[in-house]
Amino acid sequence: MFQLPFPVRDANAGSGSKDLGDLPEWDLSDLYASEDAPELKADLDWLETECAAFAADYEGKLDTLDAEGLLACVKRNEMISTKAGRVMSFAGLRYYQLTLDATRAKFMSDCQEKITNFTTPLVFFTLELNRLEDAKLDAMFAANAELARYKPVFDRIRAMKPYQLSDEMEKFLHDLGVVGDAWEKLFDETIAGLEFVVDGDELNIEGTLNLLTEQDRSKREAAARELADVFAANIKTFARVHNTQAKEKEVIDRWRKMPSAQTGRHLSNDVEPEVVEALRNAVVAAYPRLSHRYYELKRKWLGLDKMQVWDRNAPLPMEDTRVVGWTAAKDIVMEAYNAFDPRMGQIAQPFFDKGWIDAGVKPGKAPGAFAHPTVTEVHPYVMLNYLGKPRDVMTLAHELGHGVHQVLAADQGEMLSSTPLTLAETASVFGEMLTFRKMLEKAKSKAERKVMLAGKVEDMINTVVRQIAFYDFECKLHAARRQGELTPEDINDLWMSVQAESLGPSFEFMDGYETFWAYIPHFVHSPFYVYAYAFGDGLVNALYAAYEAAPDGFQDKYFDLLKAGGSKHHKELLAPFGLDASDPSFWDKGLSMIEGFIDELEAMEE
């Protein structure tokens, strides 16, 4: 199945002011001029013909190929992936611009069905690869250096070997994937179609979540209660989607004899389960030193006996309510990128100049933000819902970091460019850190520095603590679903079981907060995705500490890391920096940076 992009940022958007300047929109013509473009029809026709020809030429014959023949086969497969990815990128990006448009939804579904049908005959490719003997493959890699370049792809395919089903079953599951996509679309369209009314204003989910960052506490409370009411009114739909998706995953995992619900994600991330477990355990152990400690500080700053959920992302009392216009946001991020290395600014500039960013909040547009790499022969596209808060500037820095990473990795080619999720957040979180440090340098007063530090700590807690709590919720959800159907109340209870532990004793939880699992897209689109955020934040904190300790030559090593895409394992990529994510103490290095910021905030109180 060719995956569509989806909004992946935890919604922390900003003010609803319209005075933001000219917000850019996508120009998708670099993919295709329109859904009727002759080039698009030609690519679909080519895919239909080439997929059939590929199967005719190679099915049942992979074990007869020499190194040169296998390389030709791999390259043909790569071209099929490129054409299919281009079509689905165009269809998906158009859909996310306006998810409530029935013609766009139909176009995307039609493209997905065609490509699924065309590519079903190709299922044999990975199955037969996994039947080749290791010694035979190793000999072919030794004989042909160009083929050997693809070894990381072969390694990831062969990691699935123990969980492979019969050829017929694999084709059946490939075809059935379209049905699973329909549940994802139901989720997307339900979320995009939700209507909220706060203080007489009609809002979509992005605008309503945005009110949780307003200075006016009564407005935050009104938004939180409206979110709870609307989620409750739709909770049966969300529970049905989660039950169905989790059950489908359980059935496939059971047939594949995967040892856990998380195994598939770890395999696709090219990361060892014990590394993820070490990350999870380090973060959970640090809850009291991170979120509990910070939110106790924030409770005092806000002058509250207890914080409510609508206070979690509240601005501080001493914080100026300001709107950052689009041009100012661009200048802030570009200054930070250029100061680190002018090459980074050169790669980022076309995103602003050439219609590679869709920034505005519009009715029916998908919430959140993402950077979608499309295919290596085109360029990435960034989606934002920009509303002008400083946090939105950080989201721009984050997604632009993804874009820079995707541009640099494109030279690896379609099969090697895609970075496993554990490293996919590296450039994005590093871009945020560069932007934050540049803004911190310019703080004009102790109060301004305090506000900026607090904002960064909150973002890091949202990225590390909140996402690991999400991961624990998903682990509990999938384990519970294996025992039977879950009622909405069952899922609510699982959600609440991780909230108090992660946020700490400074919080009370309003009635209705138990439904807030309903709007998180990761749980539906990409189960267990969320730990990649914590992985990325911890990794970048350790990387940034290495940069501060030894800046000479760091940029070249950093660009080499990004250029590698998915061609190397995380151990090999981090070695030049003297870092090793499989070392349990590695995660403490990353968490200590967050603790250091909280130390500084506490010192300001003395």
From TrEMBL:
Pfam families for this protein: Peptidase_M3, Peptidase_M3_N
Keyword terms of this UniProt record: Hydrolase, Metal-binding, Metalloprotease, Protease, Zinc
Domain (Oligopeptidase F N-terminal) ranges: 128-196
GO molecular function annotations of the record: metal ion binding; metalloendopeptidase activity
Membrane-spanning parts: none
Co-factor binding comment: Binds 1 zinc ion.
Peptidase M3A/M3B catalytic domain sequence ranges: 349-591
Name this protein carries in UniProt: M3 family oligoendopeptidase
Organism per entry: Thalassobius vesicularis
